[in-house]
Automatic annotation (TrEMBL):
Its cofactor is Mn(2+). InterPro entries: PEP_carboxykin_GTP_CS, PEP_carboxykinase_C, PEP_carboxykinase_GTP, PEP_carboxykinase_GTP_C, PEP_carboxykinase_GTP_N, PEP_carboxykinase_N. GTP binds at A262, C263, G264, K265, T266, N267, R379, R410, F503, G504, D505, N506. Residues 235-589 form the Phosphoenolpyruvate carboxykinase C-terminal P-loop domain. It is found in: Cytoplasm. SUPFAM superfamilies: PEP carboxykinase N-terminal domain, PEP carboxykinase-like. The keyword Transferase applies. Catalyzes the conversion of oxaloacetate (OAA) to phosphoenolpyruvate (PEP), the rate-limiting step in the metabolic pathway that produces glucose from lactate and other precursors derived from the citric acid cycle. The lineage of its organism: Bacteria, Pseudomonadati, Pseudomonadota, Gammaproteobacteria, Lysobacterales. Keywords: Cytoplasm, Decarboxylase, Gluconeogenesis, GTP-binding, Kinase, Lyase, Manganese, Metal-binding, Nucleotide-binding, Pyruvate, Transferase. It comes from Arenimonas oryziterrae DSM 21050 = YC6267. This is Phosphoenolpyruvate carboxykinase [GTP]. The active site is at C263. Its EC number is 4.1.1.32.
Length: 594
């Protein structure tokens, strides 16, 4: 990075770490901020930032009686989701980024970004945000520093990560951190790029203030950079929720599940058991709702942490009926982005049974003709401890042991409600072959089926061929790997309605999985995996016609032949980097279907 005139003396910096001082100094030289603020994460600092944003209109205070300490942020209308076409992985060799990523050479990317950053913070304050992804004392955690000119980003990073003084202390001890540079620039979509330099452990983001584009601890660090780091260090960084299921005997089993963006991770992580289950004593505990870092423990099991400290969740569709835990945690201390508001200044989104929006997400008077009041990708940011189902095990330094890994997508046809992989290699195939209909979480067409291996298509920081190989490598002597399953809550009938009730009732499917892990539930063997028979699932109290359940559990052979063929073609796209065991597994299943 080019360092020109440097306005701030480095002896004034609150750190002794030379590498950090030099980097901050060179960024300030390039971006020319008016002031530099090192974030300590304190309440006083946060209060000052909130006041500042209320004064500039970056935040709007919501109803203090119904939503104490809650704020609304309206983003630029052209800046409402992740931008996958402007997101690049800049490895020295293009093949290392793989066909799954957009690639730019590090030299070209640096030249482009340096030109955009030159003087971009003139008149602005540059915030230096040290953060830790994961419990601060966890050996699985990793640290980063985000430099940003957006106070909104600082306030969100404070909720989403362990940010401030303790993180800085760890960074100084380890002298190893991910360097994230972010500027909202002028929010011009033509001058917007999200660049990743995995070999340098660096991220550079310009021109967006939104979610995964700007809160660099989240998708950029905890998935793209971390997945690369994880491969080198023998662990996995995944787009997965982590949930604890406590049965009536008081035993808790942890499950990690990968679903693409806006496909139900937050909802499953905060599931409320159906009435009968609650009576019997079932409980559900939330460890994480979006990202999971895991590695084998000394006993051979996989242990997982949630690297995040908060939730950046989809607002529309969140209601007392679908996700009461999420709704309950949004009553205080939350930041809402791009939702509508009611006449008495309460946040509002589609799916809430009560309340009437008077302003839409752009601040216009609400008019149905303009579309929904809340943007379909409108979000809330809230601390994890606010969630009624939060478990203190989310702070366990060693992580929680996993009993099952679940893959899933949004598929209105073909894919059964649930099936179980025969073994780890088959499980990796099931994850790698995942496909889902696209959603509003990224810009672009919605509802198009695309392959989204392990829900990581937008997030793997390296070639998927190498990534599949890395997944396969966990199957080694002494490993006690979790069982792997695939679910689909989104099958539709000919009337276009969902066939499965979903939400809390998904516990019925999780119960079957955990019984399979314990060896006491039935299933039939099919070419695509083990599927429960209708009476292997507990459907007591459900209004689900037997014919619908049969439809949900059926294997359409002709449809699956076509699917396996498409999967084979998809793997072929990774050429010689496609692991041979995966290609063999695909061929074996294709053959057994014909
Ligand atoms: N039909 C049906 N819809 C669901 C179910 N679970 C979640 N949804 C809907 O799917 C949408 C997204 O759900 P989330 O739980 O926020 O998705 P997510 O995977 O956490 O999304 P990201 O934060 O983008 O990664 C919401 O509109 C939910 O209401 C389910 O079991 N059945
Ligand atoms: O990253 C974001 O903007 C939100 C998110 O969780 C996703 O899209 O998966
Ligand atoms: Mn996500």
């Amino acid at each position: 990075m080019r360092a020109s005139h440097f306005p701030f003396p480095s002896h004034a910096m609150p750190t002794q770490l030379a590498a950090l001082k030099q980097w901050v100094e060179s960024v300030a030289g390039l971006t020319q901020p008016q002031a530099i603020h090192w974030c300590d994460g304190s309440d006083a600092e946060n209060a000052k930032l909130i006041d500042l944003m209320l004064a500039t209109g970056d935040l709007i205070k919501l109803n203090e009686k119904t939503h104490p300490n809650c704020y609304l942020h309206r983003s630029s209308p052209s800046d409402v989701a992740r931008v996958e076409h402007l997101t690049f992985v800049c490895t020295s060799k293009e093949v290392d980024a793989g066909p799954n990523n957009h690639w730019m050479s590090p030299a070209d990317a640096h030249a482009k970004m340096d030109a955009l950053y030159a003087g971009c913070m003139r008149g602005r304050t540059m915030y230096v945000v040290p953060y830790c992804m994961g419990p601060i004392d966890s050996p699985l955690a990793r640290c980063g520093v985000e430099i940003t000119d957006s106070p909104y980003v600082v306030a969100n990073m404070r909720i989403m990560t362990r940010m401030g003084a303790p993180a800085l202390a760890r960074i100084e001890r380890e002298a190893n951190f991910v360097r994230g540079l972010h500027s909202i620039g002028d929010l011009n979509p033509d001058r917007r790029f999200i660049m990743h330099f995995p070999e340098e452990l660096a991220i550079q983001s310009f021109g967006s203030g939104y979610g995964g584009n700007a809160l660099l601890g989240k998708k950029c660090h905890a998935l793209r950079i971390a997945s690369y780091q994880a491969r080198n260090e023998g662990w996995l960084a995944e787009h997965m929720l982590i949930v604890g299921i406590e049965n009536p005997k008081g035993e808790t089993h942890y499950v990690a599940a990968a679903f693409p963006s806006a496909c139900g991770k937050t909802n499953l992580a905060m599931l409320i058991p159906p009435e009968g289950y609650r009576r019997d004593g079932w409980k559900v505990w939330t460890v994480g709702d979006d990202i999971c870092w895991m590695r084998p423990g000394s006993d051979g099991r996989l242990y997982a942490i949630n690297p995040e400290a908060g939730y950046f969740g989809v607002a529309p569709g969140t209601s007392a009926k679908t996700n009461p835990n999420a709704l309950a945690m949004l009553n205080k201390d939350a930041i809402f982005t791009n939702v509508g508001v009611t006449a008495d200044n309460q946040p509002w989104w589609e799916g809430l049974p009560e309340g009437v929006p008077v302003k839409d997400w752009q601040g216009r008077d609400y008019d149905k003709a303009n579309g929904p009041a809340a943007h379909p990708n409108s979000r809330f940011t809230v601390s994890a401890v606010n969630c009624p189902s939060y478990t203190a095990h989310a702070e366990d330094a060693q992580g929680v042991p996993l009993s099952a890994i679940v893959f899933g997508g949004r598929r209105e046809s073909l894919v059964p409600l649930v099936f179980e992989a025969r073994d780890w290699t088959h499980g990796v195939l099931v994850g790698a072959a995942m496909a889902s209909e696209t959603t509003a979480a990224a810009t672009g067409a919605v509802g198009v089926v695309r392959r989204d291996s392990m829900a990581m298509k937008p997030f793997a920081g390296y070639n998927f061929g190498d990534y599949f190989n890395h997944w396969l490598s966990f199957d080694k002597p002494g490993a006690k790997l979790p069982k792997v399953f695939h679910v689909n809550w989104f099958r539709k009938g000919s009337d276009g309605k969902f066939l499965w009730p979903g939400f809390g009732d998904n516990l019925r499917v999780l119960e079957w999985m955990l019984k399979r892990v314990g060896g006491d539930a039935g299933a039939v063997e099919t070419p695509i995996g083990h599927i429960p028979k209708a009476d292997d699932l507990n459907t007591a109290g459900l209004d689900l016609p037997a014919a619908v359940l049969d439809q949900l559990l059926a294997v359409d052979r002709a449809g699956w032949q076509a699917e396996m063929q498409a999967i084979g073609e998809y793997f072929a796209g990774y050429g010689e980097r496609t692991p041979a065991p995966l290609a063999a597994e695909q061929q074996r299943i294709a053959a057994s279907l014909s």
